[in-house]
Write a structure and sequence with these properties.
two-stranded parallel sheet; four-stranded parallel β-sheet
Length: about 160
């Protein structure tokens, strides 16, 4: 939840998909959570556990006790050269949850424009410069794939994803 989350105006959008403990800032319609519960400190975990989105997307069966759980499959490997948005075979992965949230927006909700807020990744505690460089490549490939499908990503803020 980088600084650009402050620019998010929920009234400007029909639907929102947040990641992890987004509910401490905004009650998004859906949540994507790709880590198991033990990966979160108690305060963050409590927010995740008490959230009540329409759908809680995860590949982790640890979350399947949730009534809003929606199982997703993730493909092996990374989209280092091309991103495949086909509706079968699972979702492409990167090193951050918003990458899969974008694909869910396109594949599940047929979003033609996907706006990213809070995905600045500046001074992220777990993402160093080499990982951020890979994430940017993956997002560029995702953007190219979305454009071929008449969709696109709009990045808000001044983070690493500027100028996709």
């Amino acid at each position: 939840m980088g600084p650009s989350i402050g620019d998010f105006n929920p009234e400007s959008f029909e639907w929102s998909i947040g990641v992890n403990d987004i509910w401490r800032v905004y009650h998004s319609n859906d949540i994507v959570c790709l880590d198991n519960p033990s990966a979160f400190i108690p305060d963050r975990l409590r927010v995740i556990q008490t959230s009540k989105p329409n759908k809680f997307f995860s590949q982790m069966v640890d979350w399947d006790i949730r009534p809003d759980f929606a199982k997703i499959d993730i493909r092996p490997g990374y989209p280092d050269r091309v991103c495949n948005l086909d509706r079968f075979g699972g979702y492409e992965k990167s090193f951050c949850s918003p990458f899969i949230a974008c694909q869910i927006a396109y594949r599940y909700y047929a979003a033609q424009e996907i706006h990213l807020f809070g995905v600045d990744m500046l001074n992220h505690p777990h993402l160093d410069a080499p990982l951020c460089a890979k994430i940017k490549v993956h997002f560029k490939n995702l953007q190219a794939a979305l454009i071929q499908k008449h969709s696109r990503i709009v990045v808000h803020g001044q983070g690493i994803l500027q100028n996709l």
